[in-house]
């Protein structure tokens, strides 16, 4: 196969529109990849697009991960087998409602500023690309594969206008073997296209938008004309739905209205549906938005996105509306039937073990002592929780306390008894302990709810999680603190032989026996408070009673025939006695 970009996209000498769908392999368990990719082809798609998250592939500096859900080559193999073209967006920054926009947390300690020409940052990008890019170069059409384009950076025009930085990123891709056409993607208006495109370098500009194709493509045309370039129109991110935040109803977009916007794009150019299949923000991978207007707003565990495929890869009404558009515009296309999987509600189970966090602290975390409170990144921790505990007894003369400059959610304890929870702007409000004994201590449990992935606060000091300044008693900072890092990547070190105490964070263990082949299911968390869930040692993400999702999706390939262990880490002090399953999600719908 030969691919060429002229005034149109040419495949083996014939012009063809790209009908692409975004499928993030890192948000979908490998056992669902084939269903998702097949359903893209069954809808009429000819291309799959994916970002590549740096933080998942290099979670610690110099330690690389390409296994399991991070097995990008395996995902590309399936796409190739199904005959799909591939667009890869390996930009060091991906946004994507993903923690820190894809940047590893260790960069906060390693370099001065991301997305800049800072030598320490660019050296880290170089080392990452040296490991990543050779794993994908053989998929390029220039070497007999299906990979047709790769991206330089990502929506850079919405961040800065440093063309030399963009060229440095381009040069690294070429250095490690990229020889397919390169492209950029930016919003569909003049200012960001001017700032983020690289047409003087011969790189294809594309635009991102959710509607008004004619208007957005006109901006693309203006920027191309200004640079004396004639290239095909492509919407690299057609926003066919949207992401969701905690405590607010899910965002929906009418299928027929969205299909009409989809049609308008295809009548003028090519398209990449963002998202085609959203998937799930497993573990602690969700990102957050932050602005002066709305403040800090983290995303939820589900990344359903109201996309053509739902979270568990089944077609929606929007899918069939899009499929109808493709069939009308391309009547000669023969579309296979989509794969539809069944979800089941397994029998509820009673808890078999329970233990308080404070009792098993030494088995689930690592403790060090420092004279002042340090954020988690300074201790080599990227995600999860961190517990601060006074080394020495607090003084008895004052019961007034204040947590200074902390992110994102703090729970304050006196002798392991809960006093108050503070979140966001509440942090820093006065905390009162009425009676203090001679040997009393205070503890502070801080949750990292996700780093900002987009906007002016991407490089803010607020990206450091934990207590940055300290805890004051009266007018002075308390010194000497035990820091226990709690990344909670697995539950395998929880010691359930120890004690449980009510009204404090705790782990609850459940044993689930499955007969026959496991199937997709949902955990009903509507009676619980807040926390995370582990399935056979895998952290499947956060839950929170404020919604909008009251269930958690559990893919079939995280379960096994026979015995399964599910552990709930509940931070709000609620006792978890029973675990209930559902065959479909429970969601707070818009009114």
TrEMBL record:
The keyword NADP does not apply. Residues 505-564 form the Beta-galactosidase galactose-binding domain. Residues 9-328 form the Glycoside hydrolase 35 catalytic domain. The active site is at 155 (proton donor), 237 (nucleophile). GO terms for biological process: carbohydrate metabolic process. Keywords: Glycosidase, Hydrolase. One of its GO terms (molecular function) is beta-galactosidase activity. InterPro entries: B-gal_1-like, BetaGal1-like_ABD1, BetaGal_gal-bd, Galactose-bd-like_sf, GH, Gly_Hdrlase_35_cat, Glycoside_Hdrlase_35. Residues 376-486 form the Beta-galactosidase 1-like first all-beta domain. Belongs to the glycosyl hydrolase 35 family. This is Glycosyl hydrolase. It comes from Enterococcus alcedinis.
